[in-house]
Amino acid sequence: MIVFDLKCKDGHVFEAWFPDSAAFEKQKAKKAVVCPMCGNRRVTKAPMAPNISSGKSRERDVDKPPQQQPNANEMMVMLSKLRQEVEKNSDYVGEKFPEEARKIHYGETEKRNIYGEASKEEAAELAEEGVEFQRIPWVRHDS
Predict the structure, then answer these.
(1) Alpha-carbon distance 15 to 65, whole Å?
(2) What is the pLDDT of residues 75-131, one digit of tens each?
(3) What does DSSP say about strands 13-18 and 43-45: parallel, antiparallel, or unpaired?
(4) What residue ranges do the domains of the chain occupy?
(5) CB of 75 within 8 A of CB of 96?
(6) Are 3 and 69 in contact (CB under 8 A)?
(7) How much is the mean pLDDT over the chain?
(8) pLDDT band at 143 (very low <50, low <70, confident <90, very high)
């Protein structure tokens, strides 16, 4: 197995595991490699620092079980389930998300779970004000 740092067209960097370099190229050609943050399928290898280990560290690592990383398909399934949970347990407020989030934060309206859209600038303003929220990589229903 080989791990690559990948980067989507929008600049998100993430890790993915492949049996070998050819498997990555094959999956990339089929557009099967997907950014877990934004769902973008235009992905390239990002620059990586080499992993150089001494004999001592290799000996210690032999006793450790390998970490299991979800592959791209498993990640998409997890993100799809996350979307379903958010939709089931939250009110959709659309483009009014920043306004509604502020109302909840400042106690102007009842506290409840909401989701919707916010631009990068609006998200930065909310974070600056101390409004708690999470940006979620939103996958399409057909993914």
Answers:
(1) 19
(2) 888 888 888 999 999 999 999 999 999 999 999 999 999 999 999 999 999 999 999
(3) unpaired
(4) 1-49, 88-129
(5) no
(6) yes
(7) 83
(8) very low
Q: Give the tokens for residue 136.
A: 């979620």
Beta bridge partners of 139: none
Tell me if 16 sits within 8 A of 3, measured CB to CB. yes
Distance of CA 127 to the CA centre of its chain: 19
Residue 23 tokens read as: 């498997």
pLDDT, position 96: 97
Phi/psi zone of residue 22: left (φ > 0), alpha (ψ -120 to 50 degrees), beta? alpha
- Which amino acid is residue 87, in one-letter code? E
14: left (phi over 0), alpha (psi -120 to 50) or beta: beta
For residue 135, what are the CA distances in angstroms to 22, 31, 44, 120, 142? 33, 24, 23, 10, 20
Residue 19: pLDDT band with limits 50, 70, 90? confident
d(CA 36, CA 86): 17
Gap between the Cα atoms of 19 and 5, Å rounded:
14
Cα distance between residue 17 and residue 97, in whole Å = 36
